[in-house]
Automatic annotation (TrEMBL):
SUPFAM superfamilies hit by this protein: (Trans)glycosidases, Actin-crosslinking proteins, Beta-D-glucan exohydrolase, C-terminal domain, Galactose-binding domain-like
Protein name, as recorded: Beta-glucosidase
Source species taxonomy: Bacteria, Bacillati, Actinomycetota, Actinomycetes, Kitasatosporales
InterPro entries: Actin-crosslinking, BXL, CBM6, Cellulose-bd_IV, Fn3-like, Galactose-bd-like_sf, GH, Glyco_hydro_3_C
Pfam families linked: CBM_6, Fn3-like, Glyco_hydro_3, Glyco_hydro_3_C
PANTHER family recorded: BETA-D-XYLOSIDASE 5-RELATED (PTHR42721:SF3), SUGAR HYDROLASE-RELATED (PTHR42721)
Top class in the EC scheme: hydrolase
UniProt KW keywords: Glycosidase, Hydrolase, Signal
EC number, as in UniProt: 3.2.1.21
Location of the CBM6 domain: 838-955
GO MF assignments: beta-glucosidase activity
Gene source species: Streptomyces rishiriensis
PROSITE patterns, alphabetized: CBM6
Family to which this protein belongs: Belongs to the glycosyl hydrolase 3 family.
Domain of life assignment: Bacteria
């Protein structure tokens, strides 16, 4: 007899379309197996030969959390390159390393949660380092380039499947899971959605991740915009992956639903397809989905829809066609090409903010390099482990020679004295055991933090001299002479055990709190030493120094300065030709995921070092290495540069720019404000009303959006515009008039000359980064669809290009305009709102004060309410009430209690609608009143009390 070979199931047939294969596989999965797929860690189905799968692999600027990998500049640094071609190549490199690492470690996932396209609306946002720009078009262009690189260029199979973060209007870590972003329709469409939309429509995105916050009173994980907007932009199946723990937040912190079954069902119906919750344990999500099915809150079709979207990604990744997947054998990892690319990216990300001619430095310059970041190569929360490392100091040694470079870190050298008159002491550590040594016997820094086998701090008569750094906002670190930071392990003892501050909860930071016996100065007598990671003070016990328990008395300590950072700086700077002060932030301290900044100012410690350097040598260059903008006085400085933390090649790149080997050409991807007073409240998401970002800001910035200087000079000429076939064709010529080969970033902006509604002061349409030799010219062309001139017309509920004149501005930044012309576009003329015919959606206002947008129902719709139940005002411009006395009455759909007052053109109140208390915030009633009106008027509504207004109607 001949053995019978079972037929190949259709889902294994690579000749069939993916849609048919997914249908077949879905039909073979049991209901229980389908439900199990909804958790982040989908289990294997052995009877069908289907492997386990997990969503999520962090890859923001290199492969993160999976050990050594090529580390590229932070995302905000990639945004500063304004170079989509470069970022595309970086995406390719990262995706190749994902594949190569996956071949060695099955924990590495191919569904990458990157990039972050949240706009850098507010520079105090802790995660500023993760975004590309404050401008939606620049953000979309950079993100699209990165996702195309991550996806790969094969027409069928994707190298990795990128998921965009974080949907939607997410710019605060303070209360991020309970705060609501009030986003009116114009801001929603013109600003927050625009960055996502361009990427999705470009076809290289596998899905999105909803953010922790709420938008207009509704958690993003049950957002109707997932259906109404996101999925309308493409015919592809998009996978929506929840953020970690967010499904449980719907009940536990947000209290939006009463039960987890309701919450899970609502999220699934809204469009969440993969639930990231409870780590690797999928049992709780499975139980919630099964409970929702039993209660009739979900149908099997709802589950099938979500599983289909996940399977679509898995098929595109080649999981079911290993012999056809062109990426299966990808092994490129830490290649010479990737190392060169990391260096190129670090160079292109550097922005020259100011230069009085001191830069570039001559080869024989004697340099004093000082500062807390001078000999650091900092990583952030989403970095991989460094394979290679380059600090500014190392880069300067390499480029200029160690004999021409003097160095002072500028830390305060201190002793910490106890109330008993002894000093904190780091005991001698035992010989490191094999498990904390790397492959070649070197200590593995990643294994040092949190160790409990090291002896804890003690006290003695001499003590240890620590390096104290105040990172600002009262947060400090203490470092032992061997370079290890004081850290607190799970047992509560202090040890010198960490290579760097880090971790989800940073255990290496402290605060000095004045004690009643002290003088209140940070280094004065009588302080308590608080450990923020545990929220407990430090005490001295018989078995060592540890954080105090309930029965312990905190230790009163005195910090004795042996040498100040300023003295160290002065010692090495006076005899130098030029001083380079390297300042900035530690990405794990004061501004990171879970923690917003409190100020734009440089930390006082670094201001002191900068002042000391300037006093010793007026030829002082400030090199800022930071994840976000700072405010400072640039006038006394000879030059100022900024770069984000630049990854493994940061130091070499900075040295090459300082030496003039590379002409800097990075451009600021966000406005640098001069003072905290220029900033709106962190939770004010109305960029139009609050005049935020370069689009609307009316003050004088410290440095404007798009700013960046060069060692060369460039001229612009021959601006021409031709409008045809729905496109504005713009051309100009840029010439390098300097004597160095350099890059220029030409930027094209527009401004509506006489708009009917507030429009941006100027708005980026396109840009081009070009390399030009001395004397060389390039003709640049920009093809701008006329739809780019549109705004979201709340009166019509759609995009509209308004007829009229538009300025076109070409130059080197948003304020450095070299050429301009005006073009007249034939669009749609403005028309009054037909309120008598359609009424008004309350959220479609033109202006507001004292109100916020909230959810009309838990599933969809918006309403407007006074902030904290107080009073608020709404203005709706040019409302058409009909001819004559066309309107005789007004109705309002409201919930809560209070009054709605109506007036026209700023006149007296003409009608008052009173709302008796309703049963709850979602129990709407209709109230009415007489109103006689005709013609076109501005309508003003005054909201009084804790009511929710959803709609206003008019009758006649």
């Amino acid at each position: 007899m001949t053995a019978h070979t079972p037929p190949t199931p259709p889902f294994r047939d690579p000749q069939l379309p993916f849609a048919k294969r997914i249908d077949d596989l879905l039909s073979r999965l049991t209901p229980e197996e389908k439900v199990s797929f909804l958790h982040q860690f989908a289990p294997a189905v052995e009877r069908l030969g289907i492997a386990a799968f997990r969503t999520g692999q962090e890859a923001l600027h290199g492969v993160a959390w999976m050990g050594p990998a090529t580390v590229f500049p932070q995302a905000v640094g990639l945004g500063a390159t304004w170079n989509t071609e470069l970022v595309h190549r970086i995406g390719e490199a990262v995706s190749k390393e994902v594949r190569a690492m996956r071949a060695r470690d099955e924990r590495v996932g191919l569904n990458v949660w990157s990039p972050t396209v949240n706009l850098l609306r507010h520079p105090l946002w802790g995660r500023n380092e993760e975004g590309y720009s404050e401008d939606p078009r620049l953000t979309s262009a950079i993100a699209t380039a990165y996702t195309h690189g991550l996806r790969g260029d094969h027409p069928t199979y994707w190298r990795t499947a990128p998921v965009l973060k974080h949907w939607l209007a997410h710019n605060n870590e303070t209360g991020r899971d309970v705060t609501s972003s009030s986003v009116r329709p114009r801001v929603l469409h013109e600003y927050d959605l625009r960055a996502f939309r361009g990427c999705v429509e470009a076809g290289a995105v596998a899905g999105v991740m909803p953010a922790y916050n709420l938008v207009n009173g509704r958690p993003n994980h049950v957002s109707p915009y997932l259906r109404e907007q996101l999925r309308s932009w493409t015919d592809e199946d998009l996978l929506v992956c929840s953020d970690a723990g967010a499904p449980s937040n719907l009940v536990d912190s947000e209290h939006y639903f009463d039960t987890h079954e309701e919450a899970t069902a609502a999220a699934l119906v809204a469009g969440v397809d993969s639930f990231t919750d409870h780590g690797t344990d999928g049992s709780k999500i499975v139980a919630r989905v099964e409970g929702a099915l039993e209660r009739g809150l979900l149908t099997q079709a709802d589950v099938d829809t979500a599983v289909r979207r996940q399977l679509s990604v898995r098929f595109r990744l080649g999981e079911f066609d290993p012999h056809y997947d062109p990426h299966a054998g990808t092994g490129e990892f830490d290649s010479p090409a990737h190392r060169l690319l990391a260096g190129e990216a670090a160079e292109q990300a550097i922005v020259l903010l100011r230069n009085d001619g001191v830069l570039p430095l001559a080869a024989d310059t004697r340099i004093a390099v000082v500062g807390l970041l001078a000999d650091e190569c900092k990583l952030d929360w989403y970095s991989g482990t460094l394979l290679h490392r380059s600090t500014p100091l190392e880069g300067l040694y390499e480029r200029f020679g160690a004999e021409r470079v003097d160095f002072a870190e500028g830390v305060d050298r201190v002793l910490v004295k106890t109330s008993a008159g002894t000093f904190l002491k780091v005991p001698t550590a035992p010989e490191a055991t094999d498990e904390v040594r790397g492959a070649e016997g070197a200590l593995d820094p990643a294994l040092l933090a949190g160790r409990t086998d090291l002896p804890p701090l003690t006290t003695d008569a001499t003590g240890t001299e620590f390096a104290l750094v105040d990172w600002g906002e009262g947060v400090l670190t203490l470092r032992a002479p061997d370079g290890r930071y004081l850290s607190v392990a799970e047992d509560g003892f202090l040890r010198a055990s960490a290579d760097q501050p880090g971790g989800w909860v940073v255990q290496e930071t402290f605060r000095l709190e004045p004690h009643p016996s002290g003088d209140g100065n940070s280094h004065g007598n009588g302080h308590l030493l608080l450990h923020p990671g545990t929220g407990r003070h430090v005490c001295v016990a018989a078995d060592g120094v540890r954080v105090a328990g309930p029965e312990d008395d905190p230790e009163v300590v005195e910090v004795i300065v042996v040498e100040s950072g300023e003295d160290a700086v002065t010692r090495v700077t006076a005899g130098a030709d030029v001083v380079v002060v390297v300042a900035g932030n530690d990405p794990h301290i004061n501004g990171r995921e879970t923690e917003d900044r409190g100020t734009l100012r440089l930390p006082p410690h670094q201001e002191r070092l900068l002042a000391a350097a300037r006093a010793a040598n007026p030829r002082t260059v400030l090199a800022l290495v930071s994840a976000y903008p700072y405010a400072f006085e640039p006038g006394p400085l000879s030059a100022v540069l900024w770069t984000a933390h630049g990854g493994q090649a940061a130091g070499t790149a900075l040295a090459r720019v300082l030496a003039g080997d590379v002409s800097p050409a990075g451009r600021l991807p966000q406005t640098w404000y001069a003072d905290d007073a220029d900033l709106p409240d962190l939770l004010d998401y109305d960029v139009i009303g609050a005049r935020q970002t370069y689009l609307y800001f009316e003050g004088a910035p410290l440095f404007p959006f798009g700013h960046g200087l060069s060692y060369a000079s460039f001229s612009y000429a021959d601006l021409a515009v031709r409008v045809a076939d729905g496109t504005a064709h713009v051309t100009c010529t840029v010439t390098n008039t300097g004597d160095l080969t350099a890059d220029e970033v030409a930027q094209l902006y527009t401004r509506a000359v006489d708009p009917s509604v507030p429009r941006p002061r100027r708005e980026l349409l396109d840009h081009r980064r070009v390399t030009l030799a001395p004397g060389a010219s390039a003709e640049l062309s920009f093809d701008v669809p006329l739809s780019a001139f549109a705004f979201w017309d709340v009166a019509q509920g759609r995009w509209r290009v308004e007829s009229g004149a538009y300025d076109l501005l070409v130059g080197a930044s948003s304020t450095d305009v070299r050429l301009r012309t005006t073009v007249t576009l034939e669009g749609e003329p403005s028309a009054p709102r037909p309120v008598r015919l359609r009424g008004l959606q309350a959220a479609d206002f033109d202006e507001q004060s004292g109100v916020e947008i909230v959810d009309r129902t838990k599933a969809s719709g918006d309403a407007v309410t006074p902030v904290a139940g107080g009073t608020g005002e709404l203005v709706y411009r040019a409302c058409d009430f009909g001819t004559g006395a066309g309107t005789t009455g007004v109705t309002a759909t409201v919930a809560g209690s209070g009054t709605v007052e109506l007036s026209l053109d700023g006149g007296p109140v003409l009608a008052t609608l009173t709302v008796a208390p309703t049963a709850g915030p979602y129990d709407y009633v209709t109230v009415d009143a007489a109103l006689t009106a005709g013609g076109v008027h501005d309508l003003r509504l005054g909201l009084r009390g804790p009511l929710r207004l959803a709609h206003v109607g008019f009758r006649g």
